[in-house]
Amino acid sequence: MAAAAAAAAVAEAAVAEAGRGGGGTEPRQERNRARGWTGAERSEGRRMEPGEELDEEDSPGGREDGFTAEHLAAEAMAADMDPWLVFDARTTPASELDAWLAKYPPSQVTRYGDPNSPNPEPVGWIAAYGQGYVPNSGDVQGLQAAWEALQTSGRPVTPGTLRQLAITHQVLSGKWLVHLAPGFKLDHAWAGIARAVVEGRLQVAKVSPRAKEGGRQVICVYTDDFTDRLGVLEADAAIRAAGVKCLLTYKPDVYTYLGIYRANRWHLCPTLYESRFQLGGSARGSRVLDRANNVELT
Length: 298
Known about the structure:
Layout: H1 2-13, E1 24-26, H2 31-34, H3 69-81, E2 84-88, H4 97-103, E3 126-129, H5 140-153, H6 159-168, E4 174-180, H7 184-198, E5 204-207, E6 217-223, H8 229-241, E7 248-252, H9 253-257, E8 273-277, E9 286-290, E10 295-296
Region (Disordered): 1-66
Family: Belongs to the UPF0696 family.
Protein name: UPF0696 protein C11orf68 homolog
């Protein structure tokens, strides 16, 4: 945990380097509000068949055959520390977005770089910042210290405990996760989401580059406050309006900061909600399920 806290501090120091946009790279990203933008959200797991959806417990970041939460956390830190490709609407005209998207389609940008890809050097993430994007990390180091104290206390670790830790330390951001195989659907979904960010319908988003293994990639769309259910649902509606029809899951960043991924020792499910596209259904275009309580929200 000390290493994770140090990484967060380094990322915060990199805020001053942000804002180049227009297809530039940003080393040691601010982790965008130090929001838990980690490589463990990328999908380098088993190959999915066309049209196959994410299983309830098949969260992103690795295979089901032995990839532990600790492994995913280590992978996460490595990805965050590599340069990112960023379009920053705060400093770059929106008119340049289409050219940037064409130059860096996520299905072609490679994680470790390749002379035949758009990026000869490694890239951790591809990201879009909206005009109103303001980094805001909360007290991440305080959160991690409280987490260490909780584990040594012997008290039970529950979703309610983590929620209270997040509120106490104001680490409230979260993200909708969109998993797709490399190809047209991924590039199309990312382009729609990036436009929604630049046009102000979403705040900030990122997508993982293509890994050597060729597994699925992931788009993360962030919200300010995972306890603000209305805000979470509004972001889901904006993603659907951008043309994304696949299964979405929502994960609070508190789980990411504390290294709680799939296959964690506490047997916690790191995602709160799932959203399924509803063809010809409600005007919002999806049905959202509260997974913990098995209750439909829309």
